[in-house]
Amino acid sequence: MGTYVVCPYCGAINFARTEYCERCGRRLDNAPEITTNTIYKQLTVAPTSAAGWNLQPYSSRGLPLGVQESLSPAALFYIFKEEFEDELNMGGVWGMVAATIYSMLSNGVISIYLSKRGRVFKKDTLLITKQRMFDPQTYGFLSLKISGLPYGYSINVYDLVFDPSKKNKLNDPESYIVDSILHHDLNEATWNFLFREEVRKIKLSLLDKLLRVPDTYYTRYLNITNANYYRPQAEKLKNLLRYYVSYRPWETKVIRDECNRALSDMKYYETDY
After folding, report:
1. Any long-range contacts for 141-150 (C-beta under 8 Å, 24+ apart)?
2. Confidence label for 19 from pLDDT (cuts 50, 70 and 90)
3. Span 237-255, mean pLDDT?
4. What does the domain layout of the chain look like in residue ranges?
């Protein structure tokens, strides 16, 4: 009788003694074991999902069907951003980037080391080197460029954040990056589970229109009760970041500075000509 382990993050079935999930790349420490008989019963007796598990109005962990059971590091950081700011003095896009990099580093999918970028005025950066295959859904939008690298190839923090197509074009590059992360990392059910948005339009004067003042404002509200489901994941991330902030502060400073440079290079600045 064959024995397998079930990934607690994505539900994929892996061979016993597999160290990393073949679907999402997460570690399989303490993953539950099942046998071929169990799998057969799941597939033939009960209505199932594509992964072979019962379809219920609510998941086994108490979430509405379709809502993600685990979130990317960047999404977790955003949802609990006030706590990360208060406890670790981390915030904004650079905090989301640091959360992603250090989560990937702790799981062994990348390595990082200090380097320089630029031809004349060289600036400090971190080189991020891909060490093994991983599912970018686990780490989210900020891991896509790393996922596309061949093994052993590197990308620096600046290029991880910078979008060349938006150079000198964005009024609010930070919001652009944050929205890109959230819309990629959260499916529709999870978005609706966590957020409510209100849209408000205002009437503009002719001068406002000439100055390109926006006429639409979006206000995003977090459902704190639902967000608390992900608090244990956020606490693990907080402990991880606490270590790096305390013992490797020069790295977090480089991440912050490089993210700020990338955002600045995407910002639109009016000129007199």
Report:
1. 141/72, 141/74, 141/180, 141/181, 141/184, 141/185, 142/72, 142/74, 142/96, 142/97, 142/100, 142/181, 143/100, 143/104, 144/184, 146/104, 146/110
2. confident
3. 94
4. 3-44, 73-266
CA distance 178 to 174: 6
Statement: the pTM of the whole predicted model exceeds 0.90: no
CA distance 235 to 231: 6
What is the CB neighbour count within 10 angstroms for residue 251?
21
pLDDT at 42: 43
